[in-house]
Design goal:
Radius of gyration of chain A: 18 Å
Number of strands of chain B: 9
Strand order of the largest sheet of chain A: 2-1-3-4-5
Strand content of chain B: 5-15%
CATH architecture of one domain in chain B: Alpha-Beta Barrel
Largest sheet of chain B: 7 strands, parallel
Strand content of chain A: 5-15%
Number of helices of chain A: 9
Helix content of chain B: 40-55%
Strand order of the largest sheet of chain B: 1-4-5-6-7-8-9
Oligomer: heterodimer
Shape of chain A: globular
CATH architecture of the largest domain in chain A: 3-Layer(aba) Sandwich
Distance between the termini of chain B: 19 Å
Order of helices and strands of chain B: HHHEHEEHHEHHHEHEEHEHHEH
Largest sheet of chain A: 5 strands, parallel
Largest interface: A-B, 28 and 31 residues
Chain lengths: ~220, ~350
Amino acid sequence: MSETSEPSLFAALSDAVLNMDEDAARENAIRVIRERIDAYRAIEHGLVDGMNRAGQLFEDEEYFIPEILLCSDAMYAGLDILDPHIDRSRQRLRRKVVIGVVEGDTHDIGKNLVKTLLDAAGFEVVDLGRDIPPARIVDTAINEQADVIALSTLMTTTMDGMSEVIELLKAAGRRDALKVIVGGGPVSQAFADRIGADGYAPTAPAAVKLLQRLFEESAHA
Amino acid sequence: MVETTPKQRLLDTLEGKTSDRPPVICMGGMMNASIVEVMNSSGYTLPAAHDDADLMTSLAGAIQAQTGFENLGVPFCMTVEAELLGSSIDKGSLACEPKIAREAFASVEQVVYRDIDEMIEGGRIRTVTSATGKLSRSHGHLPVIVSMTGPVSTAASIVEPMNFYKQLRKNPAAAHRLLEYVTTLLIRFAEESVRAGADVIAIGDPSATGEILGPAMFREYAVRYLNLLTEAVRKLGAPVILHICGDIEMVRFLLPDLKANALSTDAMVNLARLKEEFPQITTMGNLSTYALEWSSPEKIALQTGKLVEDGIDIISPACGLSTSTTLANIRAMTGTVKGS
């Protein structure tokens, strides 16, 4: 078999994710290992690049939830193969995010998207799932020494749980140790301001950008 | 001159006839008005009223009497269909609505197809139809609305939703089979409801928004099966209200294809503009439920008045009401429409 150049292999991985092709993601990931190409770079420039492009198509309203879910399946298929081969010394510091859907709401499409895109963007994500009591979200964030709590809801009726999380953090004296971001259908910037959240994002790709911006700001503060 | 009853007014409006003023209603189901204040003062409470036809009847009556909404709406959740189809339900509490605890199937391919005629005899369909009959007999001047969960949302409540959404694209044949099955059940549920005395069938399909599916899949899965259900219900002689969640921008051009008598939308949709663009659509909505929970009666009255001025055909909340919404705010809404 002929040696494939790094750029074309990375492009193939990226395309596999964009085209929702799990098999192609696996095949190309195996070629990365076989050809002794740096797995970390293959993830960054291949799989993550593909997921970023998919996220862009989502923002452009060309891809929708079903497509993004299939893209993320392809990304994880490649990641499963490449991840064990990463040179651990190359790992940069990863910010830890505890993510969940607040109690009362069993919708988690949005949350799953944010999780996937944060994962792709290099955040470490602890996913609590859906319908989670505020106290459990806060306890987990404190125990995990998380940097961020990301909360989602699709229902007006469960928005109070978001403010409860912030109140519990304050009560525990940990409000300043963590950033809290909120999102989901009925949530708005005005609501985020009212409950004292650090930020609001209307879409999953925007949530990633929001966190990147918040940490840039705090790095320069 | 004989005064128009609320039932006649709503039915006229749904038929596209002009009326003295818009009806002000709350359709039940995902958009029910079983607020804590009404439950505490009436003593008819959830979650018990989800399972007991007499309690469901009494609570629906108390909601109508206290809020001033011009209809009776049952049930108070959107889990009746999913429960029947095998999902396990957490019935919630007084203040928290029921939800799917676990979907019946992990994937679209694993769905076990059962005999719908046998199924229809079980579960809470009987509770709903029994309450419908009682309400229809005791409140002749008011329309009884039975609210159902739309096909896509029902399907996404019996199959793990992430798998369901993926299979819409990956395995359309299996997805269509599931949606046909679910729609057949919903048609049977509607038949039983109309037979029991329901005047109007309302459908809410929150998992089938343009934002989630995009226009192509909205057309292929949402419009198709919503219309199948709507046409079957209209053949029974009952009008249909369809509530579409979220922003409709992306699927705006598909809205005239929907066969429902009236379209209800979320708060972010400009209904006056929608009316202008599609004069043939009977519009319903769309007072912000966020405002209903947090704002004051004075502001609610202003916002409601604006909807009436804009010529919105039926005034109603834009989404599911929070159970902590105050009666004063709801009354400001219903009172404003009635005084208009």
